[in-house]
Amino acid sequence: MTALRLRSVRKRFGRRVALDGFDLDLPRGSVTGLVGSNGAGKTTAMAVALGFVRADDGTVDLFGEGPFDARRHSGRVGILPQDAALPPDATPRSWLTGLARLQGLDGAAAGRAADGWLADLHLSDRAGSPMRTLSHGMRKRVMVAQALLGTPELVLLDEPLSGVDPREADVLRRLLADRRAAHTAVLISSHDLSEIERGCDAVIMVERGKAKPAVAVAELSTAHRGRIVYRLAGPPPAPVLEALQSIAAFDWNAQTGTLSGTLTAGASADLAAVNAAVLRALLDAGVGVLAVDPGSRIEAAFLRDA
Amino acid sequence: MVTALGQVARVAAEEFGEAARSRRAAVLLLLYMAAALLTVNAVVSGLQRMEREVRSLMGISAEGRTGSVTEVLWQSERFRGMLRGAVRDEAAVRDLFDAHPLALAYGWLAFFYTPLLVLLVTPARVAEELAAGTARYALARVSRARWCLGKALAHAALTGAAVLMGALGAWIVMRLRLGAGDGGRIALGLLGASLRTWVYACAFVGLGCGLGFAARSGGRATALAILLLMALAVGGWAGGRLDRTGRPRAAHALRTALPLSYRMDLWRRAPARWGGGALALVAIGALGGGAGAARLGRKDL
Questions:
Q1: Nearest residue of chain A to residue B9 (CA atoms)
Q2: Which residue numbers in chain B have pLDDT < 70?
Q3: Minimum-distance CB partner of B141 among A89, A102, A130
Q4: Which of A69, A83, A99 lies closest to B137 in CB terms?
């Protein structure tokens, strides 16, 4: 069953077209990543879904009940809006409790919900501190906590992991996996493509106000063979670089000391075989290899499609 | 399932708490109280100086409590005649003489300061919350109309609290400067003046919220609020001018829209007068707030 459906949504801000026939289907019990360039329309799509921004055309449907209506959907939808500041003088506990009560929880249940999320996100010790005293990563976790309050059936998170340290990012991934198990539909917009790859079931590419059909992350392993990056001790000789082009499209970046290759569908199917061939060529030429990074499959797909 | 009223009350409670904690509201409240107290102090000093001169001129003993001569003056036919000339309404003058003169003086000051306080705090707070995106967290849970109503109620309550605090401060100053006499009567008078001030300020709360809902930033909202204050002052002046130039209908039409026109009604004893005045002030506030809420209902956040 679909939790969120957008059809042919169009939105202009003055002369700029933000959404140009945007379609999206978000099934329940899934975690979907939304990736695209800056200004591609990801944030606007989320804002249209929650009624923060009015679409010029097209339809928005939540749970098969029509567009977002706070009276009907309060507490059933959680959102982490991009660039939305927290009230500087409120404390995480009082603020979360207030929001939980606003969506219908009674005082005791709201307090329990706030305390529960603060504990899960390792913020209990700062529950009574004013927001302005929290670090960027802590504030981001408070923002995520408010989106997950209660039992939302649909959660939209815009850049939930920016500024969050790896340990807390891992905690958040597990919490989102729990939401998936509870049949919640989760949509994550992020520029951190490796995070999307690790935490999402499917990915939707957005470009110039249009969304491409969702692709299962598991399918990307065959559809997109990825991007591989070698950090070298020195520049590869020109004949070696030329020879490597027969394996994949390789670029040498002298500034970063990296040799990057985007492996297309026409390249060898076996990443290990590609790696072995490249390493052999480099080592035979006497080029020191400091590190090998297989890169993100989504990144490869994104760079190819963008 | 939370009720509509419950959601409005929750928005109001959150806003009240947040505004009470905010530094700007605290600073402006302190400034408001300081201005009120300094003015009350100046009024009392002036009163004492005037009494000393009257006692000296009339050869009255200096042992009488401060304020007693003022009350004698206040009740004198000559002073009433002066007030009649200023107010030009016999019934209003009779009602005004029921109030304690010091409470009346405080009321007059509060009627001047409170709209300034409201229009310097409310529009900027509301507009900043919208511009910073903070409002979106609540607006994912509550309709824009309920959110607007909750904000307006919170600011009305905040204004009431500020006015009461100002009155308490004024009462303390009066007690310290005037001694123990008449403390209870002055307190009651100040309470009455505070209630009237609060009703008067409700019009400005509505107008201020309306500006906050419609403006794109806190700075713009404050600029619009200052323009509004200037427009109201010009409107009051224009109403008088139209009256003097023989156009009473135009003057009446203009005054109907100005909160200033209903100030005197709030001091009247007849329920039809103070009730009508209070209703008109609340209606002005509701219209201003409603217009801003309607604008917010259509705009992208």
A1: A102
A2: 1, 59-75, 88, 179-181
A3: A102
A4: A99
Interface contact flag, A70 B137, Cβ < 8 Å: no
Cα–Cα dist A215/B45, whole Å = 81
Of B14, B129, B142, the CB nearest to A74: B142
CB contacts, 8 Å: A69 with chain B: 143
Interface of B with A (CB under 8 A): 1-2, 4, 7, 10-11, 13-14, 17-18, 21-23, 129, 132-134, 136-144, 146, 298, 300-301
In this complex, which of B13, B14, B300 lies closest to A54 when CB atoms are compared? B300
pLDDT band of residue A264 (cuts 50, 70, 90) is low
DSSP-derived secondary structure letter, B59: T
Domains of chain B by residue range: 4-298
Q: Do A70 and B142 touch (CB under 8 A)?
A: yes
DSSP structure class, residue B134: T
The contact set of A with B (CB < 8 A) is: 47, 50, 52-54, 69-71, 74-75, 77-79, 81, 83-87, 89-90, 94, 98-99, 101-104, 130, 146
B140 phi/psi in degrees, rounded to 5:
-85, -5
Which residue segments constitute the domains of chain A, with CATH numbers given?
2-220 (3.40.50.300), 224-305 (3.30.70)
pLDDT tens-digit map of A159-204: 998 888 888 888 988 898 888 888 999 999 988 777 788 889 899 9
* Phi, psi of B99, rounded to the nearest 5 degrees: -80, 150
Structure tokens at B293: 């809420």
Query: What are the backbone angles phi and psi of residue A8, rounded to the nearest 5°?
Result: 50, 40
